[in-house]
Structures are given as C-alpha cells and as structure tokens.
Amino acid sequence: MRRGLLLAAIVLAVIVAIPIPAAAFSGFGSTTADATYGGRMRFTVQLPGGSPDQLALLLRFAGSDSTVVVPVDPGPLSAEFVRDTAAEPITPNTSIAYRWRATNGEEVTLSPEKTLLYDDDRPGLDWRSARIAAATVHWYGGAEAQARHFGSVSADAAAAAETLLGHDLAGPIDIFVYDSRNDFFGALGPGAREWTGAATFPALRTIFMWLGGGSSSYLETTMTHEVTHVVFQDVTANPFHDPAKWFNEGLAVWSEQQSASGHEAAVRSAADASALLAFDGITESFPIGDQAARLAYDEGATMVQMVINTYGRGAIAAIAAAWQDGAGDAEALEAGTGVTADQLYDAYFASYGVAAPTAVEPAPILPSNVDRPPQPAAPATESSAPSASSSRQPAESGGGAGWIPAVIVAGLGMGVVVALVAARRRHASP
Ligand SMILES: [Zn+2]
User: Fold this and answer.
1) What topology does CATH give the domain 122-237?
2) Contact criterion met (CB below 8 Å) for 143 and 60
3) For tag attachment on the chain, is the N or C end more exposed, with fewer CB atoms within 10 Å?
4) Spacing, Cα 199 to ligand 1 middle (Å)
5) Is the pTM of this model over 0.90?
6) With respect to CATH, is domain 31-118 assigned 2.60.40.10?
7) pLDDT tens per residue across span 299-336
8) How far is the CA of 302 from the centre of ligand 1 (A)?
9) What b/e readout covers 182-193, taking b as 16+ CB neighbours within 10 angstroms?
C-alpha cells in the first residue's frame, strides 16, 4: 500500500517535471479584414506558433499622417480586433492600411501591410461605376446618365482649377451619386460638413452628391465648387498650416462661374451697412449665422477676383505654392502679390469705400457689485502670521512674499492652458 503511494508520487513528480512545450511566436500566418458599413470592421491574424509577448494592430486611415496603435490581447493561435463603426462612424470610401506588430523579447515583427476599403455596402445600394477622366463616378438605381454627366462636369472643373493653380490633381477622385436623401445623409454620418446637395472630403478625394439636393444646374455648380476644393487641397497640402478658409472657399465660389460678379452686390450692401467681416476673422472658421456665413463666402470670392484683376491669375498659383511650402497666410498672400496682407485687405475695403474693420476690444470686467453677507473676522492666531512665508524670505517682505510666487505659477499655468487650447483649435480646423 505504502509502496503504491510512493510509486504514484514518483509518477506525479515525473509528470510535473516534464516541461509542457510552451507555444512560441513563430511569425504571422494569414491576415484578413472585412467591414460592414455602419456595423463593424474586423481584423484577424493567425499565430501558427503561438502568441508573442505583445501584439498590436497598426491602422493608418487615408488622409491621416498618423498611425493608430491598438494593443490586442491574442488568443493561443490567433487574434482579432473588432471596431464598432455604428458607435464610432467612419466616412465611407475610407481606405485603411493595416498591419500587425508582434513584440517578442527584443524582437519586433511586422506583418505585410494590407488595405481594407470601408465602403458603403448598405443593402439595396447596387453600386456601379465608370471612370471619366480623373474621376470615378459611382451610382446605383437609374442614375447612370446623371452620374456620367457629373463625371464630365468634374473633369472640366478639375482642368480649370489645375490650369489656374498650376498643379495637377495628385490622384483620382471618387464621386458617389445618391438617389435618396436617407441614403445620402446615411453616408455623411454625424458631424459631417454638408452642403445641401453635396459633401466633400478632400483628404479622402471623395465627393458625395444627392440628386434631390437641387436643380441640375445647382448640382453642376456645386460639383465644380467641390472639385476645386480637392485640387486646392492637393496644391496646398503641407504638414504645418491649413490655408485661410476665406481663400479656400473664395476660390471655390469664384471657380463656379470663373468670376465673382454675382457676389459683388452682397458685399456692396454689407459695406453700406458697415457690416463687412475682417479677413482675419474668417481665417479659421466662418460665422455660424447663415447671413454672415454667406457674406464670408462673398468676401472670399470677391477678394480672389480682386487679386486676379490686380496681380493676374499667376498670383493665385503663387499664393497656393507658398502655402504648400509652409508659409503662413500673410506670407503666402505677400508671396503671390508682392504687397503685405494688410495692404491687400486695406485695398479691398477701400474698393468698397470703407475702412478695414477693426477688432472689437473686450470690455473690462468691472468689480463685483454683489453685496456679500458680513464675513466672520479672521482669528488672530500664530498660523496666520507672516512667518508662514518661506523662511528664506527676509522678514520685511511680510506675508506678501508667500503668494507672489504662487500667483506667478498660477499665471504660467493659465498660459499653458491657453496655448494648449489655441494649439488644439488650430489642429481641429478642417
Ligand atoms: Zn466650399
């Protein structure tokens, strides 16, 4: 009996001592990705030899210079990452370059890069497409003739913008023509900048059109406007600074008719009402109010017209080229025209018989007029004595010395916050 127990113990010890072969990462197997519009994106990888110490999925979205790193907990022989695109929408026609990164000890292994196209594959959208010049038009249902027409309008618009800006499109454009309002707004998702009948995502080189958005001539005009934005994006792309919004929009509006004459009257009547907007005020964003926003477009278009009339079409290309080289707005305007931005603005307002609008000074904050209830008198204890300040301070400096550094520190802190806010605002501009 005892001998039997001993034998069992020895067998158990031997079993425990035999090392179980640990699964070791031996490289990546196959990688796959699929997506359902408005549902999810799923990325999978096979790990035939086992999982590495650390695993991450690297995602690069079209139009972005940055890589999103997603740490993923692997299973024994595979790993999966699912993104809920209903909760975190992605614009359709976004291509996503992806690869897996394994870190095993000191060794880093990358899987080959592949691409997933996140397309609008909602049921009932039987997309068909045709290539027309630099544009690929996509349509469904019975919209082929209109879609092809928009393709040729976009080709003309692109050619005109390329000639003006002295730069070719950097790549093809995709135009998606939607038949129904629901389908169209379903593609834009929340937060998309939309025009009534079209929305453009220059970084994706993609234009979405809704056939019900207006008359056919309105839609043609809109197509010209939107294609001009894509060419302008190509011409000015740089990692430092987005060109002034009034110039970008002004050029797109001017391009609709190759003229701003239709916008003169609105600017003139705003000038008569002393309501013109300073260009510095419409550099980052346009007013929210409809009337003021329209005026911002009108001023941009008429300024572009004035630059062309005074300095020639070549000035527009030179301004855009300066932006691409990383110039600020004032530097770019001067590079194209030879005069300073302030001189340019002054000449513009003078042509409408008004002085340049001046900045509104913030009103001073007056002392509080709130009647405070009687405050209890501070008890005269040792702790409130000036000795609370740093012992290195001379006694004569009294209690004040303690809070001066505190105020300076608080001031620095506020400066940092303000700078961060300003930097973030710049970053967030479209
Ligand atoms: Zn626009």
Assistant:
1) Zincin-like (3.30.2010)
2) no
3) N
4) 9
5) no
6) yes
7) 999 999 999 999 999 999 999 999 999 999 999 999 99
8) 15
9) ebbbbbbeeeee
